[in-house]
Amino acid sequence: MQLVIVESPAKAKTINKYLGSGYEVLASFGHVRDLPPRDGSVDPEADFAMEWEVSADRTRQLTAIRDAAKRADQVILATDPDREGEAISWHLLEVLKAKKALPKGGARRVTFNEITKAAVTKAMAAPRDLDQPLIDAYLARRALDYLVGFTLSPVLWRKLPGAKSAGRVQSVALRLVVEREREIEAHVAREYWRVEAEMIAPNGATFKARLAVLDGKKLGQFDLNDAAANAAREAIEKNGFTVRTVETKPVSRNPAPPFTTSTLQQEAARRLGFTASHTMRMAQNLYEDGHITYMRTDGVQIAAEALNAVRDLIARDYGAKPEVLPEKPRFYATKAKNAQEAHEAIRPTDFSRRPGRGDTDAERLYALIWNRTVASQMASARLERTTVDLFDDDGRHGLKATGQVVITPGFLALYTEARDEPADDDEDGARLPRLAGGDRCASKSVQAIQSFTEPPARFSEATLVKRLEELGIGRPSTYASILQTLRDRAYVRVEKNRFFAEEKGRLVTAFLERFFARYVEYDFTAGLETQLDDVSAGDASYLELLRAFWADFKPKTAEVMEQRPSDITAALDEYLAPFLFPDKGDGVDPRLCPRCAAGRLSLKTGRFGAFVACSNYPECKYTRPFASEGGAQANDGPVELGTDPDTGEMVTLRSGRFGRFVQRGEGEKPARASIPKDVEIAGPEDLGWALKLLNLPRQIGPHPETGEPITASIGRYGPYLAHAGKYARLANTAEVFETGMNAAVVKLAEAAAAKANGGRPVRGAATALAELGAHPESGAAVKVLAGRYGPYVSDGTTNATLPKGAEPTAVTLEEAVALLAARAAAAPAKKGKKAPAKKAAARKPAAKKAVKKKA
């Protein structure tokens, strides 16, 4: 018997179908050993010896593997065909050797790029030894990540309060996000004008054109101002225009290559809204189910048999004409820096398995992969791009119109690659009417449009992965984990699929740029990736790489560790001065305190992180956040809103590390309240709202059943109701101050019912607000229930809405019986009509069955 070990149960289940009875397939559930998170796991003094530890949650599975190995004739290590897969196989082999569980036949390694019967059978027939250079590359990466993390992170903790960790690649990715944030804040919007006209062709069709020439001079982006643009608009409205030239050019668009790991992550983010980590989870499932090839790759080629299968499918389903299927197959080469192209691109394993309806995320991702792969072997799209120049009679004003027409769609019939930042004024896709030189065109409408230059867009997952790939930072398999780490450390936040640098992330980046500049340089990080790739190719020694890195890195960390925190803060204050205290060009010292007008502002660090404070502390207590929205905007200190009429204390509007808040009075512990997002407080006119927030929680009154108070307030997770240790959410801040007793009782009852239902809202069953007793005639239980349109009484047969304003819990049994009787009396005919219809419907099926039996 041969023991086959793979990573996951899903992969084991799929492979088991293809192997005979002489095989046993077990899963390791991923990595089985790792470096323990403590000092000394990598020992530079012992030539980077590594101490490995079996993961606690893998002990049981390793026992099963060990026992199976003792029964087996040979062990087949069939983990994934990449560096991580090779590392898992190496760890498994080392564990089996240490436990003396390796069978006489030893262990062999097999790899397959797709989990199909043909691929698995072929791999089993050609086992090999483990790839030592690939294992060395893994050891080097793991040691580097450990040494950077466990050497640099303690420096951060001690010298930079609030910082959590630094990483070899994560810190460089964070720098990209922070630098983009700086670019956005440094951007100064510049006004520009353009003139657009809707023109009428001789055949009556309309088309759009823009002003391109003024007074015989070609216009640049900033050549027009308000007056010139409106003068040109008036001139275009008055004058007729003649077509001077019509230029038509053929244009060809080629299909994109099949997916690599990074391009799949980018396109899934753009088209499907998936995060990189979610894309990889779905791709992993598709791979393990045998539907796609291995999903961690930077190769763009596909195997010859797959190439033939794609071309056969195109010829059969879309046609074999040259405008659909090119004469020769397409071959692609990657443009990514440091790409190794060791594996095929990501493609379907069986092209006859067409995409389904897309009911699940995995199906939607499969459809993306299938369409992209097939389109990559289709013909180029042929388009015709037309440019028309029109001038008025005196030649002073020239208009330009552009458009394009698809002649043969080629691959566009199946797939179009999404764009990261669609252009707002892209005219190329417009259709133009047929025009010829000398044609006269009149204007239908003309607009002078004011615009402003925009700052660069914040990174999305797609654009950040693309930029990392362009710079050669990280590997395709690491992008998802890098981005997730930045989120987990709260160095960035993601809003509307865009990365925003958080205060903590900006400070860490500034610290690393100032004291460890080399290690967050893009070229250095990319160069290290190249060296690691050389190790995996067997062209370099991983120990030499580690020795060279440590010889420079260790002294640098020791040097920074010796500096006092105050010296670190002073250096950061100087380094960040252009960002924290920008020169406004008004001659005023940007560091001058806006409150006391005597002290100077500087960067300080405290228990909760960095902030800006006045040098005249404690006489002047002016502070502002290190990085408030909009960068280093001035904060003029507390804004006085007015006096609390009950206490006589001043109420002020302030900003703190957790955002804006209102405060009543001064002293050691003044009353404070955060300002919710749906409340706007700006000045004295908003004193009423400030007092409402400061006086929370609001007492609604005693619960009619328990007598205990019901309160409304705002907590960490938003507005809520509270009663006797139980809670109910409110929709918004306004409900905190508007919810009355009836609504509060209903909401609390609904929340209690939902909690009893496992946290899910109870659908179809109304919440009982009170049980009144048995109906005097029918004996049925009469209850007061919370309904969609308000409280009502019911005996299980008849429902009657409570009168407006009636207290649900104050209704008596007699009142409820009277309401039910009135409701039943109001609709007797309705019941009478329904009964005969039901009986007739019940007899019909029986009659049909009797006829069938006789036949």
What's the β-strand tally? Answer: 32
According to CATH, the homologous superfamily of the largest domain is Topoisomerase I, domain 2
Oligomer: single chain
Low-confidence stretches: 628-635, 828-855
- The CATH topology name of the largest domain reads Topoisomerase I, domain 2
Tell me what the CATH architecture of the largest domain is.
Orthogonal Bundle
If strands are numbered along the chain, what order do they take across the biggest sheet?
Answer: 9-10-14-13-12-15
Query: How many domains, in number, for the residues?
Result: 6
Q: What is the CA–CA distance across the termini?
A: 61 Å
The percent of residues in helical segments reads 25-40%
Class from helix and strand fractions: alpha+beta
Mean of pLDDT: 86
Proportion in β-strands: 15-25%
Count of helical regions: 23
CATH class of the largest domain: Mainly Alpha
Based on CA inertia axes, which overall geometry fits?
A: globular
- Radius of gyration using CA atoms only: 36 Å
Please summarize the sheet with the most strands: 6 strands, antiparallel, barrel
Protein name: DNA topoisomerase 1
Domain Topo IA-type catalytic: 131-557
Keywords: DNA-binding, Isomerase, Magnesium, Metal-binding, Topoisomerase, Zinc, Zinc-finger
GO molecular function: DNA binding; DNA topoisomerase type I (single strand cut, ATP-independent) activity; zinc ion binding
